[in-house]
Amino acid sequence: MCPTCWDRRVKVVDERETRRVMMLPNTVLGVGVLALVPCIWPMQVGAVVLGLWVLSRLGPDSPPSARTRVWIGMALGAIGLVVSALVMLGAFSSAGVR
Fold first, then answer.
1. Model confidence over 39-84: pLDDT tens digits?
2. Does 1 reside within a domain?
């Protein structure tokens, strides 16, 4: 291959690698957003478990934004769990309030 073609190939491969590295963190973030809906226990637990799994798979050379997205997704999953527990306990119920 000519040097110009080789440089273009390297650039395209780098772009694809960056997108591949960000796929799992983006997935955790998406699951975390969905976990904010109350009483969807599998989604909420899944956000936390998936986040832990992705953190273990990210290498030391991964971009900092990848880890940030994973932590945000896990936090959203935990918030969803707390909100679901409060809903189940009736904290948002107006039955006993006058």
1. 888 999 999 999 999 999 888 888 888 999 999 999 999 999 999 9
2. no
HSE-up (13 A, CA, CB side) for residue 50? 26
Distance from the first to the final alpha carbon of the chain: 79
Asked if 77 contacts 32 with a C-beta cutoff of 8 angstroms, the reply is yes
Q: By the 8 A CB rule, do 51 and 95 touch?
A: no
**Paired tokens of 2:** 């000519």
Model-wide pTM > 0.90: no
| Domain extent for 41 | 22-89
Alpha-carbon span 11 to 17, nearest angstrom: 10
Going by C-alpha positions, the residue among 81, 87, 23, 20 that lies closest to residue 47 is 81
Distance of CA 27 to the CA centre of its chain: 5
In a domain, 4, yes or no: no
